[in-house]
Amino acid sequence: MPIRRRTALRITLIAALVMAVGPVLLAVFLAREQGLSQEYARATALVQEIIYRSDRAVAQMQESLEIMAAGSFGSACSDAMLARMQQLGLAMEYVDALGYVENERILCSSMGRHAEPLLLDATAIPTVNDHELRLDVRFDIDPDPSRVFNVLSSDRYAVLASSEQAIDLGMVDQGLVLATFIPQSGQVRISRGELNPAWIPRLGEQRQQQFVDDGYIVVIMRSSQVQMTAALAAIPVASLNQQVREFMVLLLPVGLLAGVVLTMLVLSLARQRLSMTAEIRLALKRNEFFLVYQPIVDLASGHWVGAEALLRWRRQDGEITMPDTFIPMAEQSGLIGLITARVIELATQDMSALIRRYPQFRLSLNLSANDLQAQEIMAQLRRLSLVSAAQPRQIMVELTERILLNPEQANSNIQTLRQHGIQVAIDDFGTGYSSLSYLEKMQVDCLKIDRLFVEAIDTEAATNRVVLHIIDMARTLGITLVAEGVETAAQADFLRQHGVAWAQGWLYARPMAAQQLGQLFAVNAYDATVPRP
Ligand code: C2E
Ligand code: CA
Ligand code: CA
What we know:
The protein is 44% helix and 22% strand.
């Protein structure tokens, strides 16, 4: 297999693979992104709930202390004081008990008069209003002695709130980690689940922080109300993976289907292309290409001055394929050199006699951008000149504006051609990349005004003015103009009036066989300088 075809096949397969796998990978990626943002949202909601509860608890504890301080109950631990404490304990949702304090001892509380005073021995953390906060306090007369309390106290009263309640969100375990902590010190108030202590410092001075670490999606946030509160929620990534799997079950079939469809599309396009190049090779071998010739006419006199060779492909079944369908394919697959070589060969056979007989006759050949680099093409063009004994200027090549993409290279090639007495035309002028400044440097002999602009002549289209511009420019640079695709007398009149020299189009003649051109040329080329046969 030739290298070119092998690379083409390899590229095709890679493209097909990318198309099959790409959508699936994209689906998985999207599923993960989607899952991640969902889990972050869930963790954020949990953290917000914890902070809300914790803030409410602090507010109610402070309020309870203020209410007690404002009351007067006769002596310490009087019935009135106990009754008030019990009443507040019931009224405040987050407050579990209140107590009366002397010398950091709770002497009595909403739970009754204590036999032994409860010593507040846990380390106190000062808070606002000279209050002190203690964490992890146990209260031995509590009916549930395993309960741990946060205790907020003034010098006379203490309020107890179960530490658990901020994080007691009533959620079944699910491997969740929940915690509240004091952001200044990093001290954990209460936690549940496998809290990784390294997470807490990551909040730093920020209001909120989120990250994936140690198999968990972690969200940490500080309270905007209570300086001393921050909370953390962590959701195991395993639960995200579960979600991604569920998502994938939905997306994967769609992704796979898209992949398969795209792959089939790529493969069928590639097969078409491969078979087209194979067909072109075969057509060259079987000699299925031939040329037709479209006359080029002098606008002023109506006399024929030359012809453009146009390629045709007669398939084995007799069907004629037009160049627009196979030339681009040949250019892409690198076969254009072989085709151009065949064109020059055919033109040499067809036109040598005509060229010799009519020294005014100008034969125009289409070249592709790549052809300019090929030594053989240059050699063949010279051979055509020799065989037909062409005068200088009798052979012209048409180049599209695409060659001007590399102006330096193009210019040197063009000048080489011209040194060999071959004329150079820019084909389809106005549709491509040309700019005036290029043209000035290029020194071409001829510009072919594209059919688009000729069509626009009878209309009001804006392209209509472009023709005048092109005509102006060509006159300044001394370049001969050929108008392509002239179909109406009105177009011809307009072009003639504006000084365009030559034209080509159905108004004069369609492309025809070489033999027919020979016959008709004898009739139509007559002028003083051309001998009648
Ligand atoms: P092009 O060089 O611009 O050739 C002019 C095209 O316009 C030809 O089509 C011709 O048949 C068509 N044409 C001529 N007069 C009229 C008209 O009055 N009205 C309309 N609507 N069309 C008109 P064709 O022969 O199908 O060639 C198409 C293109 O294929 C050519 O455009 C040229 O770019 C390319 N081509 C043709 N032969 C060759 C060749 O031997 N080598 C290379 N590299 N390209 C070729
Ligand atoms: Ca042409
Ligand atoms: Ca053209």
